[in-house]
Amino acid sequence: MESNSWIGLGAAFLCLAFVFIDQSSKDGGLETLQTETMRIHDEAMKDMADMNRVGRALKKELGNLDSLAPRRDTIRQVLGQMKKAEEDMYNWMRNYAPPENEPAEKAKRYLQDQKQKIEQNQRDMKAALEAGQKLQQQ
């Protein structure tokens, strides 16, 4: 590529960067915060799909175990952890409402709170998934 092409690409990149920085400063970073919150939610939904797949396998195993098998209690505990993480996700989705027509500071506090909640839910989901995967390996 010629030197002029690189200069042109660099200038275009800088223009785009300024546009995004300018937009972010206008809305106080609200759009960025909302986008990040939804990105975390989307990742957590993928984790939930994996968690549910592992959960189904554990339920099947539970049905095949002897009623006195000590492993039953461990599987039930992990399934309970999975159920709680899933219920928390559905509660978060039911209660989440993007702040519209709210003062910027109030909207920012709301989005920060929602981001924190969905991050915690994602951590809970990953922990339940890992516990289930570990059980499957035993």
Describe this structure in words.
The chain is mainly α. The protein contains four helices and no strands. The chain has helices at 3-26, 30-64, 71-95, 104-137. The longest helix has 35 residues, at 30-64. The termini are far apart. 16% of the residues are buried. Residues 8-16 and 18-26 have low confidence and may be disordered.
Comma- or semicolon-separated keywords:
138 residues; mainly alpha; 0% strand; elongated
Structure summary:
The protein is mostly helical.
Question: Secondary-structure blueprint of this entry?
Answer:
Blueprint: H1 3-26, H2 30-64, H3 71-95, H4 104-137
Helix pairs in contact: 2-3, 2-4, 3-4
The gross shape turns out to be: elongated
Low-confidence stretches: 8-16, 18-26
Distance between the termini: 55 Å
Instruction: Please work out how many helical segments DSSP would assign.
Output: 4
Oligomeric grouping of the chains: single chain
Order of helices and strands: HHHH
Tell me how many strands there are: 0
In what range is the share of β-strand residues?
under 5%
Largest sheet: none
What would the average pLDDT be, to the nearest integer? Answer: 85
The secondary structure category is mainly alpha
Radius of gyration: 22 Å
